[in-house]
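User: My instructor asked us to take a sequence, write out its structure as tokens, and then describe one feature of it. I'm not sure where to start. Here is the sequence I was given:
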Amino acid sequence: MKWLQVGAACMALSAASYASAAAPEDVLGQPVAKPSGKPGGRAAPKVRFGGGAARAYGQALGGLQPEGRSVTRGAKETQVYQQASPSVVLIVTREGLGSGVLVGADGRIVTNLHVVGDYAEVGVVFKPKVEGAAIADADVKTAKVLRRDEVADLALIQVSEVPAYAKPLAIAPKATVEVGADVHAIGHPTGQAWTYTRGIVSQIRRDYAWDTKSRLQHKATVIQTQTPINPGNSGGPLIDDGLQVIGINSFKGQGEGMNFAVSAEDVNAFLARKDDRVTTTATTRPACEAKTLEERPLTRTKGVSYIVDEDCDGAADYEVMEPADKREPITLVYDEDGDGRIDTLVMDLDRNGNADAALYDTDGDGKIDLRGDYRDGEDAPYRYVRVKG
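Assistant: Let's start with the prediction itself. The structure tokens for your sequence are:
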């Protein structure tokens, strides 16, 4: 494992030399390179980096600061939040973030399938022990996806290490769920980490059908509640007054107060199965390999820059800079939030095809505010650390 301090990272990037800059701050915020239409030429060096989770992770940082503490209404709500929130995790993938709930002392976590997608591994963050602690106190842990249920939109993942203060929550039997009962939810809506909300059970609907952006057709017994569900809440627990999980918050319907959680009945059935459960999907994903759209010389040092289309849509996704001096790192530069300006720098320091460190601007101010550290050979950072300006 390589450890890269921010200062060393900056020096490495200086050596990499972007076209108009010698320091990360000069690169961040600059317009992304666009192909001119010339032939692509040679293939760009391949570097495993999977850095797309950083923006989603960065969005959650504010919720981990003291001003992001959750506000509850009374003694019962406070008790539920204090006892249950350490069992609710933040799940991070390249597509974004979601929630999950610890259900086993061995590190098993239940979430929505649409949160983990097709990934074999995802990032997981447990709530810091100290309320309002900074992000540096909460490392990203790698979780393996063990099982999927395409029908009920559920997934089971597992981490190898669980903080001592995080206790699994019990899944309730179906008989405990009643219309009119108070329910509680904890999750990460729109990136505001470990947010508490409260509502009531409006109805229990059996064999309810819905679909998601993945175009999978889902069906399960769902609990309709007035508890607000927003992006980032998906996969988190719906909890009763006895701190039992009565559902997994999954989707929002059309209309005010139309929020749905997959019932504990379906969650228990999912956990009892040993294999994946699949359904039909409306689309198939064609095979795609990254393609070099254009090759051009670096301007501040000898070397080559490659503009790469990663998802086969014909548009540039990132730029790879390969200095001629083999002692200098290969650097990937890209725009993660799609605003047309550079916000991410990823470095392969020893040119072995694996990323070693990355620097991110997650709030669009042109300054580094997050660093990702990679273990050799892994597709995504194993840890993110806030960088103070």
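For the description part of your assignment, you could build on this observation: The radius of gyration is 22 Å. Try explaining in your own words what that tells you about the chain.
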